[in-house]
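Re: beginner question about structure tokens

> Can someone show what the tokenized structure looks like for a real chain? I only ever see the sequence side.

Sure, here's an example I had lying around. Input first:
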Amino acid sequence: MNKSEIRDEIKSKRKSLEPAESGRISRAVCRKISSLGVWKKAKTAAVYIPLPGEVDIWPLINEGLSTGKIILAPFILPETGKAVFSRFHDKKELKPGPFGLLQPEGGEIHSRDVIDVIIVPGLAFSPDGSRIGFGKGYYDRILDGFRGESIAPAFEFQMYDDLPVSSHDIPVDYVVNERIVYICRKFK
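And the corresponding structure tokens:
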């Protein structure tokens, strides 16, 4: 299968997932991530704001906020379309941005150099950390040269043994689904 076919397959599977099951799995994935040493020791974490159908990482975000982590979310700069990370303290600070994504409004922008861990969304993942995103390349550009750790939350059905990736597709360090934590990183 090519990337487009995989994207279509996963989108269809995500739509068919019952909300209660999605919530149960999302909470299990968040518990696994919160038990990782890389999450526990992180002082600054960049997260995605989940859309319907994605692993809902709000339990992880709320845990980070309540334990004093600096939590950042993507903010698309209107003048350039570039994604940067902006701090937020509460869900109420998020406003609709491009593509219907919620993003921090008016928060302090942080360089990725201060980020300890990035929680990365995607549509498909493999045990070696390869990922297929939504096709815009935002996270590939963010992860290219990133010195911190990257974690991709996933539903088990998003896992593929092998993915058709390109040289510009940047893998993640961990993929976490409801059953398994894959440690994928190439030692940095």
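Each token stands for a local structural state, so reading them left to right follows the chain. The domain at 3-183 is CATH 3.40.50.10420 (Rossmann fold).
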